[in-house]
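cache lookup: miss for this entity combination. No prior model stored, computing from scratch. Input as submitted by user K.M.:
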Amino acid sequence: MDDDRTDSIRLIRDSAAGIAPRTGDLRRIRALRFQTPGFDRGVWAQMCEMGWPGLLVAEENGGAGQGMGAYCALAEELGAALAPEPLIGASMCASVLRGTDLSRLLDGSALVLPAWQERANRFDVGAETTITNGRVTGTKLFIPGAGGADLFLVAGRDGLALVAADATGVSVRLEKTQDGGEFGTLVLDGAPCTPVAGDLTEALDQAALAISAYLLGAMDRAFALTLDYLRTRQQFGKPIGSFQALQHRAADLKIQVALTRASVENAAAIWDDGGAGRVAAVSRAKARASDAAMLVCRQAIQLFGGIGYTDEADPGLFLRKAMVLMNMYGSAALHRARFARLTPDEDDI
Amino acid sequence: MDDDRTDSIRLIRDSAAGIAPRTGDLRRIRALRFQTPGFDRGVWAQMCEMGWPGLLVAEENGGAGQGMGAYCALAEELGAALAPEPLIGASMCASVLRGTDLSRLLDGSALVLPAWQERANRFDVGAETTITNGRVTGTKLFIPGAGGADLFLVAGRDGLALVAADATGVSVRLEKTQDGGEFGTLVLDGAPCTPVAGDLTEALDQAALAISAYLLGAMDRAFALTLDYLRTRQQFGKPIGSFQALQHRAADLKIQVALTRASVENAAAIWDDGGAGRVAAVSRAKARASDAAMLVCRQAIQLFGGIGYTDEADPGLFLRKAMVLMNMYGSAALHRARFARLTPDEDDI
Amino acid sequence: MVDLDALSDDDFRRTVREWIEAEYPEDLRNPPKRLHWSENQVWYYKLAAKGWLCPGWPKQYGGMGISAGKQIIMVEEFERHGVARTNDHGIIMVGPLLIAHGTEAQKAEFLPKVLSGEHIWCQGYSEPGAGSDLASLRTEALSDGDDWIVNGSKIWTTLANDANWIFLLVRTDKSAKKQEGISFLLVPMDSPGITIRPIWTIDLHDEFCEVFFDNVRVPKKWTVGQVNQGWTMAKALLGHERIYLGSPKLSGYALGRLRDLAERMGVSDDPGFVDTYTKLRLEIADLKALHATYVDVVRRGETLGPDVSMLKVIQTELFQKITDVMLDVAGENAGLLDPMEGNRAFNPGGLFLQARPSTIYGGSNEIQRNILAKNVLGLPG
Amino acid sequence: MVDLDALSDDDFRRTVREWIEAEYPEDLRNPPKRLHWSENQVWYYKLAAKGWLCPGWPKQYGGMGISAGKQIIMVEEFERHGVARTNDHGIIMVGPLLIAHGTEAQKAEFLPKVLSGEHIWCQGYSEPGAGSDLASLRTEALSDGDDWIVNGSKIWTTLANDANWIFLLVRTDKSAKKQEGISFLLVPMDSPGITIRPIWTIDLHDEFCEVFFDNVRVPKKWTVGQVNQGWTMAKALLGHERIYLGSPKLSGYALGRLRDLAERMGVSDDPGFVDTYTKLRLEIADLKALHATYVDVVRRGETLGPDVSMLKVIQTELFQKITDVMLDVAGENAGLLDPMEGNRAFNPGGLFLQARPSTIYGGSNEIQRNILAKNVLGLPG
């Protein structure tokens, strides 16, 4: 990794610490749970001030012109802080919007969220939604933070369109999620819309990798909490971290965290280098991150014992975040199958 | 389980101890390794004297009229002793032979072994072999102990036939196996044969269950050896069995042995009761026994450490026996798929 | 009234099954969470009226007094139908304890009130900070004339907010070794100085509570058995718990929900799913076979050895594994807080979280493996 | 001669690759077992003649003296081509040891003879009964004028039956604490009192030996470094071993054989196999990514931390897992002693057994997890 890249990644981590500190307490997160829209508009405004939704956007379009390395570092920090603000969704939209649509998004005056999914367990843009004559009809699923969106960037059969959340023919049904947020189902019945050029193919992959980085940050912190607990919690007259069976389990979790970090950072580097294997690398990272995050968070509960099962203890917050993210932007199984499809030759052997 | 059944099972275990003691040393087994036919004809004669090849044969046909419960108990004892004598193959033949063919087999004067398999990874009677006009043509694979057979009971497309090992048109190619025995490939080129009534369908299932019981005996003893080692071997100033990580691993192996025992004994009881689920129960037992035996034997090597990797230590004998038997009469995967096919309704839930 | 003892096992089973099917409230079958007294009292009173509340108690105390074999049949039929647990600590813990160790006065005072539903009991064993090391308890009872004065706190007290009595382990001799100096007290929950704090679990349920004791005065006549002999009695009560924690029914129920979910998600015929699902079916089937061997031991009236810990380990980890797969299958629905489509049958996240504590409570699976290693396999140290 | 130092990394890699491809004996690629001197000496002499035998040694001692980065490129190219290890203990262990701690006389005596192939070394560390507790060694050297008198035995001495010299850890002060009082000796294998017993492994190979010392006289001038300071030097030598044990190439090779076998058995397109195989590919790919981060550390000339133990654990368990799957796929052929059809590419049983010791040697994986828990995660005790 060259020095410039390393520097910009360090900078982005430092700036993340100002808004979403990975060592901070989780009172902010708890307070936002189970309240529409599930995130803090003030914090979102700060994130926009920091230029985060435009991190990947080219400088000539008003963005920061950073690469996936920096974006993943940021997403990792947000994951460690369990920040619920809809950065990953907004960033997807920023990658295709231009002009005032983009600047409104970047300056925080209009939150635009992507609405691309039509079926569960899919990682492609839905094909049932129609955009014709400035009207859009269709149903979009699993939109996190939908209760706070001003506009939706809707993927249709033949392109993209922007729809105002309060337009006629638009309805949003909200379902609570385990992390305290909400999934929105967007029902569009001839709603007025503005066509947008471009497509979301690349943005989807970037989002999947960013989610992987977010999961990495979350599992890394859940593991750190667990290690602290193992070092301090006494049972049978000694710290439970001195029991070999738990030590070996901790070693195994450390290995999973390390493999996830290597996988995510490697995928980001391949992406930034524009390598042919970059899409496969995203699938590899997401498969690892989903499985490893669930393993680490499940074990955090187990190693905390009874207290880990209470809502007042923190491990549950991480587990429930992982439950929400594990299958978003493609489950581990989906991404493994995609990896096999993308790289059938196995020239890696 | 009723008392009669319990008694006959205890009796058979006691009698097995006389010939193939589970606590005996393994010098006999080592001495027979990598020598054709891989077993001891004298011991085989003793087994015939005990009536073991006819254990399942009805009393009116000269057998002992015992059930699968007793047969599995015997097979388990033989597994614990790693006895290489071809009891399971001969028992398959005994279940269909009658008259002098049967009595020669039972009294040990003629060893008859079954030749049914034509492809690897299959658990059905091959369909390429033809038996017409007293001549048999075809190729049969994976016949353990073939170097010691006097006759082969060959399964053909339309029935069974007996072929003398020394008849014209018969050739046997021997390949060494990891346990010190041999797989025979039987090539029949218009060899003279005698048709035999009946088919091997039921006998194949009985053999698969007996192999499962043999694996149970082998893994049970490999586990016992391992426990002894854990209790006595000193490292860092204490017995290695006092290290919690190894204790928990031993507990997990114990669980696998217990589940295998429950699975095998349950399948034998279902078989003897003639229940509709008896074939599925055989598949369940073989799937469990194959996987569990490999796990226990692999871990025996690991827990013995360096010494476990030497040929002079005993764990390797058990591992290498398990390598040979794990996929014979159907691999775990094959039997799981068969189980799913046989019981698609899941009324067990 | 039918003489249940005289019935054959098959007739008894049919009798039980028919009655359950006729009487058990449909909306209480296989509840996703432990029910509160407000929800399950209707069934408690039905059982009480039928005389079926306490199968294991002798007839002279108002129990059914049926054989161990018939008790198991009842459990099987209850499980088969998805009957929820009631607030049953009086039935399965306090009753047997008093029948074995209580005074005549205690039996006369308490047993009828369990049978009538007047006393709902909860269990005060675990303490904050003690965790798996149960015997390290610190709640203490100081002698003061005819009373004990109790100070301390208990945690993981199931449904304490439903109960009006609690049975407590307290330390009555601080100078004795850890497992000695512990006594068993019966305490009314409305005693001055008791406060209850519900503990919210990660599935947002208040099944558990913390119970605080601040100079709570307890008459010494409500000490069960000898003073300082409480630990032995408590251990004996835990004896048969593991065979129930090891029942394959819970995993079987979860597997059924997995199958339904896979069908709903359209993956039930995918080879990958079929393979995973078949493995889980086989695990349950073998657990069933193993469990049956322990049930046979109980049926014969013999004592279960420490190897019964295997059942607890197998069943709880299998239950968790099944719910892990549910999340894999559920796609984005894995993250929903409530059941999908408002249908309790499709509740992957809920069942997944419900499965988490099973490897922690009842003696964590780490403790069970220690027991297996030391008490079953004879490993040293 | 080309100045290798002056070449760009890419040019250097190409130069190495072309030479290997031209010179390496085809029949020695990816051998199923560790080769004996009789088999690999042809390659040893080729490397020696080319001046490429000792990439890590400084030029002044006859090494290539190339950068850490270029050394890694050589290892990568050797691995890529399936080049077998030679009898390389002189090159990777004795050479660096003497260069760092040897006297000028020792350097002059021994380094040229490693370079010429005249001295073939083996390593005497482990002892019967010591196992993972290396420091508990009991082979002792008693002072006798200008000599040591050595008594004891060593085990797991790789290819001792090929070697004419051995480097030994011996106890020279029995009163000192375990890790102190250990010294490093260089001993000719033809010394009176040395006997060698090959150890047959479960895959029926004699890669390892036991070496017995019965009053073996060793001149004190062949003590390396300070007396009683041998342990520190030995530990430093082990430092870089784990990154090599953690190289993904071995697993990659095994995965290739798994693919070939699956094709041969006609299951390579079965969904179940594809799923398993893809998981293994992903494991290797992520291991590669992680391994690369450690290689970067070495390339930058920094010291590896104890977390490098992760690589050893991941790679050896992955290697085993791949060969486990090979047995599953092989059907009845899993039980064959020799390769299927006489074709070394289809050798499931052989590769499975070859994978077994990888989790035991080089510090067992249990020891590696202890290291991770204590030295990386800071867990107590």
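stored under new cache key. The beta strands of chain A are 112-115, 130-132, 135-144, 151-156, 159-164, 170-176, 182-192, 194-196, 234-235, 238-239.
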